[in-house]
Each structure stands twice: as C-alpha cells, then as structure tokens.
Amino acid sequence: SRAMAGVKTRLMSATRGLAVMTTTFAGYKPWAGDFDKRDRGNLLSHESGTVTGHGLKNAQERGILFSSAGDEVYENQIIGIHQRANDLKVNICRTKQLTNMRSAGADEKTNLTPPTILSLEQAVEYIEDTEFVEVTPNAIRMGKMARKQ
C-alpha cells in the first residue's frame, strides 16, 4: 500500500468509474527506499488577498492552477503547478489598472481555464516535505512552510 496513494483516484478517472479495485495484505517487506520527487515546482501566492481574474490570466500562462477568481489566498499558498522545476511566486491578487481612456480591444473578456480541484487524497499525494495540506469546511488548500532563519 506504500506506493498506492492516488492510484484509486486515477484508476476511477481513467475508467470513468467502471473499475473494481480490491486489496489484500501480503505481508511486510523491507524498506525499499524513497520515491522519486516530482519534476515540476509550485506556483505560490505572492501576497494575501482575494484572487482576481486579471491576476489569474497572467498566472495561467505559467502552469496549471488550483485557484479561481474570488478565492481567498494567503502568502506562500500553493495555487498551481509550475511548468518548470522551480517554485515561482505570482501575484494573483493584482487588479487591473483603471483608466479613463478606451482603446479598441482594451476591455476584452478574460478567458480563463477552469481550476483543477484536488481531493484530499490527491493533495496529500502532491505535497513534499516542506509543504502542508490545510483542510477547512469550505476548501482543501496547500501551502509552503516558512523557512527557519
């Protein structure tokens, strides 16, 4: 069962709920070593506040998002998966600067991709040693632990 975290979720998604999965205890085995680490970093919230569509528009170009417009976030909250191996802080609480000048196409609609909603099992599988999962009645959020100085 050590390597089975998240397999049930992926199996059910792949088969659209038609798979049947059973488990049996086969005994204890010696320690087989650590698992491979993930190859992509996190998108982290730059500041605390309310997520805006304008901030999400720029952040979605950097990777896959877990947050949607109107969500409350805090600093160093994991808001998505970065395309590269390093962590990147993004400002998803940024508001669009309002001007009294209008130009052609300036007030275009923001096309946002829907966020990926993780279950508790998926969130626990996703995190690494320096990260945590926060479970509230309204949301399952992940964050990066502050470094000790």
UniProtKB/TrEMBL annotation:
InterPro entries linked: BipA_C, EFG_III/V, TypA/BipA_C
Domain TypA/BipA C-terminal: 40-147
Pfam families the UniProt entry points to: BipA_C
Gene3D superfamilies reported in the protein's UniProt record: bipa protein
Record-given protein name: TypA/BipA C-terminal domain-containing protein
Species: Strombidinopsis acuminata
